[in-house]
Specification:
Immunoglobulin-like, alpha+beta, about 140 residues
Length: about 140
């Protein structure tokens, strides 16, 4: 009888230890996930465009959705990359703005699951705001 009690005691201790380890590991996994945080817009764009790397040494700005949607993007002085839904009609257009004066850069094109426009900022010195529109409504905005 004494040996049976010892075996049962060891089994109970082993079960409790296993339960504690499982709970601790689950808690640690949840903590690690929360510490990762949400990805930045730049990380989201890089992922959306198939691992494209936005160089760290270029001037860039995050484009945030001002229309109430969930679009996002990033603009450098040479390109605009955006994750936007397919428009029912019309095309996404990119504008630069300086002191209230806007200049149209052109229509964005579909590229790797997102939208892209390439341009040369050298033609537009001093323009510091990027605006993406759809049918005259501002969708994304960001400033350098």
């Amino acid at each position: 009888m004494k040996a049976k009690d010892i075996v049962i005691g060891i089994a109970v201790v082993a079960l409790l230890t296993a339960t504690i380890l499982v709970v601790k590991n689950n808690r640690d996994a949840k903590l690690q996930e929360s510490l990762k945080g949400t990805p930045t817009i730049e990380q989201k764009v890089e992922e959306k465009f198939g691992g494209l790397q936005v160089p760290a040494d270029v001037e860039k700005t995050e484009l945030k959705d001002v229309s109430g949607g969930d679009g996002f993007g990033i603009a450098t002085r040479t390109e605009v990359l955006a994750d936007l839904p397919s428009p029912a009609n019309g095309a996404y257009q990119v504008w630069l703005e300086k002191d209230g004066k806007k200049v149209l850069l052109g229509n964005m094109r579909v590229a790797k699951g997102g939208y892209l426009l390439e341009y040369s900022s050298a033609k537009f010195p001093g323009y510091d705001k990027v605006i993406v529109t759809l049918n005259s409504s501002n969708i994304l905005e960001g400033s350098f």
